[in-house]
Amino acid sequence: MSEPKLNKRERYKAQMTPYDFYAEFETLDFESLSEGERFYLQDYGIFNTEFLEDEFTLRIRVPGGRISVEDFKAIAEVVSEYDLTVILTVRGGMQLHDIEAEDILDIHKRINALGVTTWQSFGDNVRNIVTDPYEGRGVYSALEVYPLIEKMQDYIIQNPRYVGMLPRRVSIGISGNRANVVSFFANDIYFALAQKDEELGFNVYMGGKNSEVARSADIFLKYEEVFDFYKAFLETFYKRGSRFSRSKTRLFYLIEEIGIQQLRSYIEKEYDRSFETAGNLQLEKAKFGSFEQLNDGTYAYRYQTNFSRLKADEILRVADFAQKSDAEIRFGIDQNIYLLGLKEQTVPFEHTMENSTVLTCAGNLCPYAVWSIKDDTEYLPLEKIEEHQIHIGFSGCAKGCGRHQHTDIGLIGLKTSHFGDTEGGARVHLGAEHSDGASTARMLFSMVPFVHLKKLISVIIELYEQSSYDDFESYAKHELNHFSIEFLSLWYLFNIKHQTVVKLPEAVNKDFISELELLKEQFVEIEMLELVETHFRDAISALAKELWTVAGKDPNYKPPIERNVFR
């Protein structure tokens, strides 16, 4: 049996390490890059594709989301001078878009001359290390982790052994808070606040990604042990991670292949001492408003971005206010800016959008995205989402950069011809138990045309409003997730069809009556009763087609009565 072949990226690494490639950096013809050069450039924060060869993206690492006023202003000057587009990423960093080939080298030099860096922000590296925006200063803060983040970043930046040389990217989250603005269980590694024998430290969770939650490694680390564990993990993944099929190189797949106990034993060998078993996780759910009081009596303010986008004058306005108020600037992985240390609960800003709990990918700034919520906000009931602080994850394509399966309601923009001549649609996920990493969201519908999306999400929220729960995640945990996803799909569809808002039965009733009987009890005049009784999935497909097809534009469309699909 022949040995598997290294994937293409690994073959480039074998020819020349990314660290050595940097010596050629200034001699590159950025208007005519080869495939290999594009691979290498990602290790320095530069992204470019063959089909958009004259446009570049530059990603900036902002460890822990902390950035100085001076650096923030300097970046704004670059953005203004070159007329760039800037967004905050879901990893608490920044991306500069629309950079022309002739400018990328100069911009790269100017950014890296500041107190931030672009090194290893793309590619097979440890990506920007993230934490909670209230870390160290919020009322839920128990351990300050920023010194650890700085130490972890310093260890890998410009380290020839690891620059671009890991089998795949590694995302790391660490928080010493008892409650966080956004969950960290989508990370490859999450160091979560825990307690053991009356000492606070961290439980280790591993193997998260956009479609999976990190699982417990049954390891408890004292504060002073975290950095040594981090080094041992990196060396283990460097040696043991797969370098073959590119789609199977994330940490999740290594755990799938060898098991989490075997991975733990490999890390323990590099760590050179035994691990303690996990302690008691110290996590609770909390709601956060625009203003929050800090543990020193001052206040923090959440400045909402326009779905992660920022303008140069906007950056300068925020930075000037922070400087005048002697406030600290931090980026959250919710793509908002936090100003910490304000003496009063007043700011000279007004929210332009209602999107504080909406996570988005780069949208149409990325060549892979099908849809961009940044520009097509009419497809979401934003007022209701903001009112109830419902967490929405939006990904423009199936790569899932908006972490749509780690939120209350998750969306992926996709193309479809299933419903006729539509502009596209979204796959809808529902009900992640994201705060404690219990579960990802389930797929509710594989495709909903954009023009019908707002109605569907409005119905979902209206039914939530009828419940007794004060947050959507609790509603999902105690009600939605006790029903099959097929039952929920039909329940929403019947409400849309009959223009009703029939409350979901309490989950406890499911123990005494079948889901079919619940449907028949509430929707007594179900036209497709036979189909529902035969198979929920068939009924969902037929009803969705009836409700969402654009009549006259689908060559296979006929009115439901003529099609006779319900008999």
Given the C-alpha coordinates, what overall shape results?
Answer: globular
The fold-level CATH name of the domain at 358-563 is Sulfite Reductase Hemoprotein, domain 1
Task: Give the spatial strand order of the biggest sheet.
Answer: 1-2-5-4-13
Radius of gyration: 25 Å
* CATH class descriptor name of the domain at 358-563: Alpha Beta
Structural class based on helices, strands and sheet pairing: alpha+beta
> What percent of residues are in strands?
15-25%
Distance between the termini: 54 Å
- Arithmetic mean of pLDDT: 92
Helix fraction, binned, reads: 25-40%
- Can you identify the CATH superfamily of the domain at 358-563? Sulfite Reductase Hemoprotein, domain 1
Low-pLDDT parts are: 552-567
Largest sheet: 5 strands, antiparallel
Q: How many beta-strand segments?
A: 20
Architecture overview:
By secondary structure, the chain is of the alpha+beta class. Among the domains are: 136 residues, Sulfite Reductase Hemoprotein, domain 1 (2-Layer Sandwich); 206 residues, Sulfite Reductase Hemoprotein, domain 1 (2-Layer Sandwich). 31% of the residues lie in helices and 18% in strands. The protein is built from 18 helices and 20 strands. The strands form 4 sheets. The protein has a 5-stranded antiparallel β-sheet with strand order 1-2-5-4-13. Strands 3-14-15-12-11 form a 5-stranded antiparallel β-sheet. Strands 6, 7, 8, 9 and 10 form a 5-stranded mixed β-sheet that branches. Helix 4 packs antiparallel against helix 10 and helix 14 runs parallel beside helix 17. The protein is globular, with a radius of gyration of 25 Å.
